[in-house]
Amino acid sequence: MPLDFHATGVGAARARRGTRNRLAGAAAEEAIARVYRDAGHRVLERRWRGRGGEIDLILQDRDGTLVFAEVKKGRDFAGALARISPAQVARIHAAAEEYLGSCPQGLLSDIRFDAALMDGTGRVEIHEGALLAW
Predict the structure, then answer these.
(1) Judging by DSSP bridges, how do beta strands 66-73 and 111-118 pair with one another?
(2) Percent of the chain with pLDDT over 70
(3) Which of 65, 71, 75, 94 would you call most buried, defined as having the most Cβ atoms within 10 angstroms of its Cβ?
């Protein structure tokens, strides 16, 4: 007889955690997008998905540089940064390459890869260029 995880509450608890994590991630992305906007960046895309993977935020700064930002939330900034793996950075780079294929200057565009972090108190740190040489 198969186990019914919903009957035991395991599935419901997992669903609640998933919903809570999605909402926390969306709130962190919105707060970080606001920090970028306040600094003069224009938000071009949120959660852009290509064949290579997903990019949380794609922005353009005042000088025209395209910024690919990975948003991570953690109890502290070090913990948030540690959640970005080398494999994830590789997927972000692959997705960015695909995105650049649709841009007028293509791979010749000025670009930057940022780690955009939020700690447990809602403070934000932007580490410009942190994901380029991972």
Answers:
(1) parallel
(2) 91
(3) 71
